[in-house]
């Protein structure tokens, strides 16, 4: 009861902030299904500040979330990949949400470092810059030099941020559960899963060892690749609340003036970026989930360097195969194949109409694919595809939503670097090679061999289970004639069960 009262009080304060910013507009959209919600949304507009009246809904929402603090900024970033939930225009505005806060004192930063490593800052760093180079809702970054002479960046969590985020996450979970109870139609949009995704992001961002581990994995995936640079993690100076990594010195990917001045060719960089994106998604199934220009730098030798590994995405091999087939079918304008892929992947329930889904896919694909080559946006195509999910009872695929957001960011950066080119055309040879390697006869034979090997690994366990079940002394302790009869019946039953066990 006390927990519910605390949540209600906190919710009332949040509601007031949202109303003052004109950010309760989603309630008005529920008017047809829930008149009371529409009435509350309309009434809230009367509380909106006049200076915000001319702003777009998404910008007002982003402003309100910033005012509410770190947890809400993170919520906005997660919602920015849910165009199916909030609409494409609002999602685009939330994607621009700036995660910036005034820095906390350098004395606190030094205190945290000393507490984490139980030694003075001077024993770890010969120089530590007290003025941070970046300050966000969860952490801030200082440049430093290690005692062995290496230039590094040191990321430090804000004091007390873990407790504040835990409190807000408990509130978000409470709201999501009530939403699913009171509005059954919202279950398809998985509000509880959205909060769970947010909790996973926060768990990584508030344990910097997890972020460091993600960065290390990405670095290993591109070891020996001359086109990319992932900074090295200094594990001896990394803990749950402090992460130290190699300092990146380069030009922001969107600073075209500086790139031109440095003699760096935009088209070459864009082709490299397309390859970088493709290899992450299809080759590795592990990709950077926040590829905005602030996280991408171009080094003097033209290599692409990436930082900030708090939001990373994963795709299993089967999902990558489905995704490749879907993209190939869209680009070939084979909308029947697009529909078949969605049904085969289980993204669309079997009780839906394949011809109607193919028709919907055509209505999305033709306006986009009919544009000049340099204007084709696969990210936008996926975003519109996700918008038709309600019509076909298609469940949300969180991993694909993050991928779609990353695609849009990558395409936006590519257009800045070379407005006349298309990253998908440049990556097409890689796509074709990967498709042959993973969908051709040899790949199918290798897949069948893996399945056979897995079958053989399970076989001894299954046979052992069968032996135990058919042993009259162990399975059915029945004596005389009844024991043999039960064993025989059990053996017949277990032969049938064996297929289930092995399958």
Regarding quaternary structure, what we see is: single chain
Q: Provide mean pLDDT, rounded.
A: 80
Helix-and-strand structural type: alpha+beta
**Strand residue percentage:** 5-15%
Pathway: Cofactor biosynthesis; ubiquinone biosynthesis [regulation]
Family: Belongs to the protein kinase superfamily. ADCK protein kinase family.
Keywords: ATP-binding, Cell inner membrane, Cell membrane, Kinase, Membrane, Nucleotide-binding, Transferase, Transmembrane, Transmembrane helix, Ubiquinone biosynthesis
InterPro entries: ABC1_dom, Kinase-like_dom_sf, UbiB, UbiB_bact, UbiB_kinase
Quick description:
It is built from 22 helices and eleven strands. It is an alpha+beta fold. The protein is globular.
Question: Would you spell out the secondary-structure blueprint of this structure?
Answer:
Blueprint: H1 2-20, H2 25-28, H3 35-45, H4 57-68, H5 70-79, H6 83-86, H7 88-95, H8 106-117, H9 121-124, E1 125-128, E2 134-135, E3 139-146, E4 151-157, H10 161-182, H11 191-205, H12 208-221, E5 228-229, E6 242-246, E7 251-252, H13 256-261, H14 266-284, E8 286-288, E9 296-298, E10 304-306, E11 312-314, H15 317-331, H16 335-344, H17 354-369, H18 378-387, H19 398-417, H20 423-439, H21 441-470, H22 480-502
Parallel strand pairs: 5-10
Antiparallel strand pairs: 1-3, 2-3, 3-4, 4-6, 7-9, 8-11, 9-10
Helix pairs in contact: 1-4, 4-5, 4-7, 5-11, 10-11, 14-19, 14-20, 15-16, 16-17, 17-18, 18-19, 20-21, 21-22
Keywords: ATP-binding, Cell inner membrane, Cell membrane, Kinase, Membrane, Nucleotide-binding, Transferase, Transmembrane, Transmembrane helix, Ubiquinone biosynthesis
Family: Belongs to the protein kinase superfamily. ADCK protein kinase family.
Domain ABC1 atypical kinase-like: 96-342
């Amino acid at each position: 009861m006390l927990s519910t009262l605390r949540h209600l009080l906190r919710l009332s304060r949040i509601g007031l902030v949202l109303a003052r910013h004109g950010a309760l507009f989603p309630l008005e959209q529920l008017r047809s299904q829930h008149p009371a919600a529409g009435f509350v949304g309309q009434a809230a507009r009367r509380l909106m500040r006049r200076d915000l009246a001319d702003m777009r809904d998404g910008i007002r929402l982003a402003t309100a979330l910033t005012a509410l603090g770190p947890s809400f900024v993170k919520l906005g970033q997660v919602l920015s990949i849910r165009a199916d939930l909030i609409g494409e225009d609002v999602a685009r505005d939330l994607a621009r949400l700036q995660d910036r806060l005034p820095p906390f004192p350098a004395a606190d930063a030094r205190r945290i470092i000393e507490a984490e490593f139980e030694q003075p800052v001077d024993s770890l760093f010969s120089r530590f810059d007290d003025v941070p180079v970046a300050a966000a809702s969860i952490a801030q970054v200082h440049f430093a030099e290690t005692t062995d002479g290496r230039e590094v960046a040191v990321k430090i969590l804000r004091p007390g941020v873990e407790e504040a985020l835990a409190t807000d996450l408990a509130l978000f979970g409470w709201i999501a559960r009530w939403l699913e109870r009171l509005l059954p139609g919202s279950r398809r949009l998985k509000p509880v899963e959205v909060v769970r995704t947010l909790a996973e992001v926060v768990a990584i961002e508030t344990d910097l060892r997890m972020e460091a581990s993600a960065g290390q994995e990405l670095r290993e995936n591109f070891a020996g690749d001359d086109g990319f640079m992932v900074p090295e993690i200094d594990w001896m100076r990394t803990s749950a609340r402090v992460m130290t990594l190699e300092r990146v010195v380069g030009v922001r990917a969107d600073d075209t003036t500086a790139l031109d001045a440095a003699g760096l060719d935009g088209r070459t960089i864009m082709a490299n970026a397309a390859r970088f994106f493709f290899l992450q998604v299809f080759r590795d199934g592990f990709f950077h989930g926040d590829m905005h220009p602030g996280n991408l730098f171009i080094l003097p030798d033209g290599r692409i360097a990436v930082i900030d590994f708090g939001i990373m995405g994963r795709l299993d091999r089967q999902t990558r195969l489905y995704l490749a087939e879907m993209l190939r079918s869209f680009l070939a304008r084979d909308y029947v194949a697009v529909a078949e892929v969605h049904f085969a992947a289980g993204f669309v329930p079997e009780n839906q109409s394949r011809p109607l889904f193919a028709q919907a896919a055509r209505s999305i694909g033709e306006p986009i694919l009919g544009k000049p080559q340099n204007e084709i946006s696969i990210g936008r195509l996926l975003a519109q595809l996700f918008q038709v999910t309600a019509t076909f009872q298609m469940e949300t695929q969180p991993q694909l939503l993050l991928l779609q957001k990353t695609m849009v960011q990558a395409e936006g950066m590519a257009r800045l670097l070379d407005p006349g080119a298309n990253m998908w055309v440049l990556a097409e040879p890689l796509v074709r090679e990967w498709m042959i390697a993973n969908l051709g006869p040899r790949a199918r034979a290798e897949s069948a061999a893996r399945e056979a090997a897995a079958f053989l690994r399970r076989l001894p366990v299954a046979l052992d289970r069968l032996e135990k079940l058919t042993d009259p002394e162990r399975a059915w302790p029945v004596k005389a004639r009844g024991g043999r009869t039960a064993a025989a019946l059990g053996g017949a039953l277990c032969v049938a069960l064996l297929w289930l066990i092995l399958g």
